[in-house]
Amino acid sequence: METVLVHIALIAYAAGTGAFLTWLVRPGPRWAKAGRWLLLAGVVVHFASFAAGAGVAGLGLGAGSWKGGQLFSLLAALTVAGYLLLDWRGGVPIAGVFVAPLTVAVMVPAHLVGSSEHEVAPQLWNSGTLFFHVATSALGTSALALAFGLSALYLASERQAKSRRPGRIFARLTSLESIDRTGYRLAVWGFVFLSIAIGTGSLVSNASTGSPLPVAPKQAFAVLAWALLASMIEARLVAGWRGRRIALLVVVGFVLLAGAYAGLLSASPAMRGALALGVWP
Amino acid sequence: MTTICVGVSHRQAPVAVRERLAVPADKLPERLRQLRQLPGVREALIISTCNRLEIFAAADSPKIATEIQQTLDPAAAPLAACRFDEDALRHLFRVASSLESMVLGEAQILGQVKEAAARSQSAGTLGPELRRAIARASSTAKRVRTETEIARGAVSLSSVAVDLAHKLLGELAGSSVLLLGAGEMAQLAARELRAQGAKELLVANRSLARAEELAHEVDGEPVSLAELPVLLERADVIVCSTGSEQYLITREMVARAVKTRRYRPLFLVDLSLPRNVEPSANELENVYVYDLDDLERVAAKNRDLRQSQIGKAEEIVEEELRAFLARARERKSVPVLARLRAHADAVARAETERTLAALRDLDDRQQKSVRAMATAIVNKLLHAPTARLRAEAGRGPLADAATELFGLDEHPEPRQAEAAVLSMASNG
Hints:
CATH topology of the largest domain in chain B: Beta Polymerase, domain 2
Strand content of chain A: under 5%
Strand order of the largest sheet of chain B: 7-6-5-8-9-10
Radius of gyration of chain B: 31 Å
Number of helices of chain A: 11
Distance between the termini of chain A: 31 Å
Mean pLDDT of chain A: 79
Order of helices and strands of chain B: EHHEEHEHHHHEHEHEHEHEEHHHHHH
Oligomer: heterodimer
CATH class of the largest domain in chain B: Alpha Beta
Number of helices of chain B: 17
Radius of gyration of chain A: 19 Å
Shape of chain B: elongated
CATH architecture of the largest domain in chain B: 2-Layer Sandwich
Order of helices and strands of chain A: HHHEHHEHHHHHH
Number of domains of chain B: 3
CATH superfamily of the largest domain in chain B: Glutamyl-tRNA reductase, N-terminal domain
Low-confidence stretches of chain B: 420-428
Structural class of chain A: mainly alpha
Shape of chain A: flat
C-alpha cells in the first residue's frame, strides 16, 4: 500500500513538473495553477504513504533499520509542502519550476531504483532524541532547499536585471527584494533547525558510538554548512549584506549540506550501522 | 434585425477630427436618445474614448447606417466606417479585446466598453441584442487577456520604469523617490511612482525656485541639488532628466552611498541626453541603472511580444464570434412563442412530477387530475401573452420583452428549456 501511494505521489509530482515547465515556455495562469494542484495532490498522497507505511518507524522511533530512500522521500515531501505554503502566502509560482523537478529527481532514485537497508544501533531503537534529530534535520534541509532554490532564482533574475535585458525568469518572478527577503528567512529557519539537528546529533552519536564529535565527511560538511550559514546571518545583521552576496552564501551552504547527505550514504557500513539518520551522528 | 456599427477611430481620423467627435459623459444620454429616435433604430450604444467614437445600433434595416453617419460631425462623417451584422460584431469584439487600440493590449478599453453599456442602459437605449453582444464581447476580451500575453509588460517608457521599480524593489509603499530635473517624462514616471504608494517624492533642480515650483506641481518636497550625496542614501528610486552635459551622479558617489545604505537596492532611471548617471554605476552591487535606450529596449520587447500574440487573440475573437452567431441563429430558428410554451410546459411538468413524487398515495385518476390542473394553469396564464405575441408575429418589442422576462435566451431550443427545468427541479 505504502509503495503504491508513493508511486501515485511520484506520478503527481512528475505531472506537476510537466505543468510548471510548460508554464515556463507557454505562459498562462492555468499551467502554474495545474502545477500547484498536482504538487498538492502529490504531497497529500505522499504524507498518506508515510501514515500507511512504517510511519513512525521511518522517522526513527522503533525502527531497527532505515533506507536512504525513506530519508530522501521525507525530505522531498517536506520541501514540496514548504513550497506550497510559500506559494500560498507569497505567490511565487516560479519556485515551482525549481521545486517540482528537484522533487522528482530526489524521489525517482529513492523509490524506483531502491536503496539498501542500514541497521540502526539497538540502543537508539526507541530514542526520542533520534526522532527529534531526524525531524529537525529534515525540516532544516527542506527550508534550506527552498532557500537554495530562491537564491538560484535570485541570481538568475538579478543577472538579467543587471544586463538590462530582462528575460522570462525576471518577468515571471516576483520582486528581487521579496525573493531576497523570503530566501533569507528560510535560510535562517534552516540554520535554526540545523543547529538543533547538530546538537541532538551529538547526543545520538554519543549514545551509539561513545563519541559526541566523530570525525567523518558527513560531520565535516554539516559543520561547514552551519558555519557558513552563521556567517551569512551575521553579515546580514551586522554589515547589512543582502542580495547577490547572501544568495551566493545560501547556495554554497546548501551544497555543503548536500555534501553531508552524500557523506551519510557513502560512510563505511560499520559506521552507518552504528549511526542513524540525520546530518550529524 | 441588423446590427450596425458606424465608427471613427485613430485609424481613420487624426486627433483634430477625433476631438470634435468625442461625446462628453453628460451629453451621452441625450445623444443616445437622439439615435434611438431615428426611425427603425431599436437599440443604441456609443463608445466614446480619446481614440474612437463607435456607434452601435440594432435597427430594422442596414440603410439606417447612412442616417447615423449623418449625425456625426461633417468633417468626420466621410471618414466613418460602416459595418454590418457579423462585421459589426467582430469589430465590437476586437475593440473590447483591445485589438483595435492604439496601444495594443491596453487595459482601459474593456472598462470603457462596459461603462458605455451601463450609460446606454441608464438612458434606456440598450436592448437584448446589444446587451448580449456586449456581454459576449466582454467575456471574449477577458479570454484574450488571460489566454494570451497581449497585455503583458509595459510599453511606454514611464510605465516601463515603474514596472522595473516594482520588480527590483517590490512594494513601493514606503519608498522614497528622487526626481532630478524637470523633464516631462521624468515627471510622469515620478508621478506614477508616487501614485503607486511611494512615501515621499523629493524634487531637486539646479535652481531651488524651480525645484519648489516643480515640487508644487507633482506634490513633492523640494530639496537642494547640493544635498545629492545625502539624497543618494535616502532615495530608493532616482529619476533623472536634466540638461547637464556631464554626469551628475558618478560611480564613486553611488559606491559611497551603497555602504551607507547597507546594500539597500537603488534604482536609477536616467532619462537625460547626454546621460546624467555614470553607466558603470550599474556594476555596483544592488544598483541598477537604466537609461533611455535600456527602457526603450524593454518597451520594444514588450511591444513585440504583444504583436506576436495578435494571431492567437484573433483566433479567440473568431471562435467566440462563431459561437455567438450560432447561438443567435438558434434563437431565430425557434420562435419566441414556441420557446415560451416549451419553457412553461417544462416548468409545469417538472413541478407536477415533484408533487406527485411527494404524494405517493394518489391513484391514477388523481394523478391525472393533478397533471390536468397544471396544464390548465399554464394554458390560462399563457393565453393573453400568446394572443398578443401572435398579433405581433413574434418579432416585435413584446417578443424581446418576453425573451428577457422569461429568460428564454438561456434555453433557445424547446428541448433545452425542458432539460434545464427538469434539472432544476431535480436539484431543488
